[in-house]
Amino acid sequence: MKITAISIFPEYFAPLELSLIGKAREHKIVDFKAVNLRDYTYDNHHTVDDTPYGGGAGMVMKPEPWGEAIDAVIDKSDQLIDLVILTPAGKQFNQRVAEEFSNSAHLLFACGRYEGIDARVADFYRSAKNVRVHEISIGDYVLNGGEVAAMVIIEAVTRLIPGVIGNPDSLAEESHNELGSVEYPSYTKPALWRGHAVPEILLSGNHGEIAKWRTTQGKLRSKGEPHK
Ligand code: JFH
Description:
Largest sheet: 5 strands, parallel
Structural class: alpha/beta
Strand content: 15-25%
Bound molecules: ligand JFH
Helix content: 25-40%
Shape: elongated
Order of helices and strands: EHEEEHEHEHEHHEEH
Radius of gyration: 22 Å
Strand order of the largest sheet: 2-1-6-5-7
Oligomer: single chain
Number of strands: 9
């Protein structure tokens, strides 16, 4: 999978070189690149923003640098591109969307700042060949830009790619997870810690009963109830 992030702060993506994606990159499973939007400005001040039409506070990102930067990515690629535009007004990201994105050949993240990107950028690429546009929010709160949201999505997506995570069993279990139903509480040694014992059933060796208990616990947990 190819992952590209376009941003005025490409340094934000330095942590992606580490840990999970670092391993995926080493093994050539994921090829990540951060692109500096200002490299696609042609004025002396490298301007990326301007005042909003219709008035109002803040600045809006100009469409031209975005068009130039996105075109450069598209022109270098012979694959179908999933262009993910981060916005607080987008469709909410969840595990299902993560699974959908994990099948992508090329994820391209457009990470805006200020009050976001001129809306015509999304409109333009919706009618472009070999591009699917996704306007995505990671939750109902407002961030200062799309970079952190893109990193959240990249982490959720890359761990679903076979070979990225070290433990294949843990993902197989999650794949038939009806969101929450396998979210049972986990325990390790010691069996007694500060007066809190591990639930006895987990020490029983009865795998059928353990599976049933975990299902019940997962359902309670997804309703926000504490385990018993
Ligand atoms: C982002 C920002 C929008 C709200 C015009 C009317 C209301 C501040 C780019 C994603 C999630 C984001 C996110 C993603 C990308 C950008 C800041 C945008 C407004 C705009 C205020 C710029 C925020 N899930 N939360 N936040 N911003 N205004």
